[in-house]
Design brief:
about 0% strand; binds heme C; heme; about 35% helix; mainly alpha; 9 helices; metal-binding; iron; Cytochrome Bc1 Complex, Chain D, domain 2; about 240 residues; Cytochrome Cbb3; 2 domains
Amino acid sequence: MKRAGWCVVALAVGLAGCDDGSDGRVPAAEYGEVLFNDSRLSESSFNSFSCATCHSTTPTPPSGRMDSGYTLYDAAFRESWWGGFETRLLDAVNFCYVNFMRGVTPLPKDSPQSRALYEYLVSISPSPSAPARPFTVVKDVVDVTRGDVARGQQVYAEACQSCHGAPHTGEGRLTELASILPEVTDDYDTLFPGVPKSLVVIEKVRHGQFFGVGGNMPLYSLEALSDEDLGALLAFMGL
Ligand code: HEC
Ligand code: HEC
């Protein structure tokens, strides 16, 4: 019965494929993989992120990809998540779902979606236990040393471009809600008087939100983006 229920949900949100050729039902882990890759998991029309936007699923992230989130390979049985802040896997997932994907309410424990996502995460977690991953949030934002422009260009391509598109034009960006970089900073002296533009960008990257302004951009921990790479990125952006 449960599996039939998953199919109903899959059809309701317009996902293809409730037919595996046998009994017409999709196994939970497979449905979970579809949900993982589909921004329509969130009912918000302003959301264009899927889990896969920010998380890879291979043992090490593919080269050329610097994500804000860790790979979720072997994530299901980590001792804790979000640097020890979350002790239940579903809470760790719901943090992303609500804050980044604009999910209005957290996915309930027994919903077909959270069950399927769980089965999918288990299917890519061969180790029965795994240590928690370090996660260091930069609390107080301070300026960083500028680095190498060429390195900064690479960091932009690997960390920012998938959402923001090409520098200066935004070409290929994931959503029009993702601003054009670095041109969006042209207004910052008016919007944030007395604060150096670079510091506004650092605040945004480190916290995902900034100076009382919200947003759904993910935050970058020190593990996801070192201060050195951030300094190179700022140099590339001319800030
Ligand atoms: C906009 C980017 C973004 C999206 C979309 C997103 N996440 Fe995350 N997620 C993060 C960041 C950043 C973290 C914190 C760093 C980390 O722990 O991986 C995180 C953490 C996690 C963690 C904890 C990992 C750990 O070991 O600490 C899990 C599990 C997770 N996300 C699952 C999901 C799932 C499932 C979805 C889709 C429903 C999702 N995330 C969507 C960015 C995102
Ligand atoms: C997962 C998608 C995603 C990634 C990756 C991402 N951003 Fe964003 N970013 C957004 C979205 C969406 C917005 C607009 C909503 C908001 O402000 O959160 C935004 C907003 C911003 C803003 C604020 C623009 C304004 O309104 O003033 C800055 C600055 C920024 N991003 C810089 C970066 C930099 C630098 C990187 C790479 C280190 C990056 N972003 C990576 C999605 C992303």
